[in-house]
Structure formats: structure tokens, C-alpha cells
Amino acid sequence: MFHAKAYSAASATAPLAPTTIARREPTPHDVQLEILFCGICHSDLHTVRNEWSSLMSTVYPCVPGHEIVGRVTRVGSAVTKFAPGDLAAVGCLVDSDRTCPECKAGFEQFCPGQVLTYNAPDKHLGGVTYGGYSDGIVVDERFVLRVPSNLDLAGVAPLLCAGITTWSPLRHWGVTKGKKVGVVGIGGLGHMGVKFARALGAHVVAFTTSPSKKEDALRLGAHEAVVSRNADEMRKHAASFDFILDTVSAEHDLNAYVQLLRRDGTLTLVGAPERPSALAAFGLILGRRSISGSPIGGIPETQEMLDFCGKHGITADVEVIPVQKVNEAYERMLRSDVKYRFSIDMASLKAA
User: Fold this and answer.
1) How many CB atoms lie within 10 A of CB 20?
2) What is d(CA 339, CA 7) in angstroms, rounded to the nearest whole number?
3) What structural domains and CATH numbers belong to the chain?
4) Side-chain half-sphere of 107: how many Cα atoms within 13 Å?
5) H runs (alpha helix) in 82-183
6) Alpha-carbon distances, residue 157 vs 149, 247, 261, 309 (angstroms)
7) Distances 93 to 66, 139, 220 between C-alpha atoms, Å
């Protein structure tokens, strides 16, 4: 066991503050990383403030962070895929049961025994796992990912959650050249959805409630941008989409987007509004349309995404901050005051 510097929350109302945490010594199959950048995800805020207690209560102290990019410093004797000095990444999962049908299919995100990167039972040291707001982490080789060397590492970090959350449904529902794809919401998730859909060859239409975001949506790669509150703009796209990716977590009318799907089109939710949404059955029935949901992706799919990003030069749009500004970043995130993700430069932890 060794000790690492980190930022943690001591309670649901406490600010994140400097601390020291225990990390395990690498086992034969482990990879130890020096963490270079860690993205800030909205789920970090929800977990730190125990806002998802109905799903999973937060155990304190809590060290969040599951968008981790770093450099390998040590490897176990049985590790074959990584060597010291390699760039590597860790996403939302650090283990699974590895034996269930989901794991065998490469869908670890559906494994009933999945181990989250933070706030999950830690079988090695007891207590719970600690995340990437830290200067180092030790993870089983199977859950460590290769990072293309041509990408900006600060912008790579959010790919480990925001990226894979949007990539996975686009791939599963066959987005490719010749498809018309909508992306609802131009935020941390939505801006990645636009970039990926464009790079996959689709005709991309971005939907936003903010006229001020139309220009940025086009910059990100959308062919068209629609203000969803404008009924005339929405009507022009009726029954024309093969696929719509809905990234919005605020309450909104899903029926308006169902009506934009062509026959056999799919609306997939990756945002999670707090309250249930009302759906008109005939909107689905008359076009044989579908509505679905999607979480993150498995390890093979996440590696596929990173390789695709390396080939196409895709990273998240980030604002890089020192870890000392993490509490301010949380408050700004609540106001949507970031384009489009925060990425913590973990070198700043040395001054904490």
C-alpha cells in the first residue's frame, strides 16, 4: 500500500478539499498510473452531494473522477499490454465479475458485478474505490485503455465518459454515411454527439433551446442547427430522422422529437430527466418508431472510440483548471458556464 494526494468531500455539504488516500501496491495484473488530467462529469457533482441516494448512497470521504488520463509508472509481472511510460486511460469502471454473459460479450457496463471507479466496494483495501481527483491510481490491466499519442490529453479525459456515452448508441444504432441524425442539447454530452455523428458520415442536425448556440453547433460539425422552441423550424424536419440522440437531463417534451423520426427511427436517451416523461402512444405506433436508452460502453467499445478519435483528431472541448478551482467549477457547471467540459490538470495537485 502507498499513499496518494487527492481531493475529497467529507460530507454531502462539504467542499472538496486536499487529502491523502491509500492505493494498493500493483498486483501481477495491475497497472499504476500517474494521473495527468481528470475530467469533471456531472455525475461527480451528484455523487459528491449524495443526490443519487435512491440509487446508491455516497460513502465519505468521496474522491470522485472517472475520466482519467495518465502515464504508466509501474506494471505487474503478468501485464502484457502496457509498459512504463505509455499513455493510458481509465473510465467509469475498474472491474467486473468477468464471467457473466455481459462481460463475455464485452458489455461490462451491464455486468451486475461491475465495480465503479469511485464510491464502489473496494475488494483490495476495503471501504470504497477512490477516483481520479488524485495524483495516481492502480487498476487491473483489463480496465486500462490505450491513448493515441496524437491527441491533446486534457481533451481526451472527457472521452472516458461523455465520449463513450454518446459513441456507444451511435454505433449500436448504426449511424453511418447516408443517415440523418439529430443531437438534442449542445452541452458536455451533446457536443461530443455532434462531433462523432459528423465523423461517422451522417447528416447532422443539432437541436438547442438557445439561439446563441446555433453558431457553435455548426462549428462543432452540425450541418444544420434548429432552435427547438421554434415550431416552424421543427416542422420542417418532421418524419425525416433515422436516429436522434437526446442528451438533455432537464425536463422536456420527448413527443416533439418522436414526431421527427421517420418510419423505424429511434430516439435514444442518454440524458436522465428527474421526472418521468409522458409519451403519446400513437406517435410511436403510427411510424413503428422506438424510444430507448443507453449508458456508457464496455471496454472494447471504449477502446474503439479512442482509436477512432486518434484517427479523426477528435477530443472534447475543454476548459483546463487547477484542482484548487474544482468547487468553483462545480458551481459553474450547475449554471452551464463551461464550453463544454472541465478538465483538471492534476499537476496542480502538487501545490495542494
Assistant:
1) 10
2) 23
3) 2-161+297-351 (3.90.180.10), 162-293 (3.40.50.720)
4) 12
5) 101-104, 153-156, 162-172
6) 13, 19, 33, 12
7) 8, 10, 28
Strands (E), 48-196: 68-75, 87-90, 93-95, 115-116, 136-140, 145-146, 180-184
- For residue 229 the three cell numbers come to 422552441
**Cα separations (Å) of 254 from 258, 259, 271?**
6, 9, 12
Q: Show Cβ contacts of residue 99 under 8 Å, excluding neighbours closer than 6 positions.
A: none
The answer to pTM > 0.70 is yes
Q: Where are the alpha helices (DSSP H) in 22-145?
A: 42-48, 101-104
Contact 252, 276 (CB under 8 A): no
What letter does residue 212 receive in the DSSP assignment?
A: G
Question: Cell numbers at residue 109, please?
Answer: 457496463
How confident is the prediction along the chain (352 residues), in pLDDT tens digits per residue? 899 999 999 999 999 999 999 999 999 999 999 999 999 999 999 999 999 888 889 999 999 999 999 999 999 999 999 999 999 999 999 999 999 999 999 999 999 999 999 999 999 999 999 999 999 999 999 999 999 999 999 999 999 999 999 999 999 999 999 999 999 999 999 999 999 999 999 999 999 999 999 999 999 999 999 999 999 999 999 999 999 999 999 999 999 999 999 999 999 999 988 888 899 999 999 999 999 999 999 999 999 999 999 999 999 999 999 999 999 999 999 999 999 999 999 999 987 6
The C-alpha cell that represents 67 in the structure block: 475520466
Task: Tell me how long the chain is.
Answer: 352
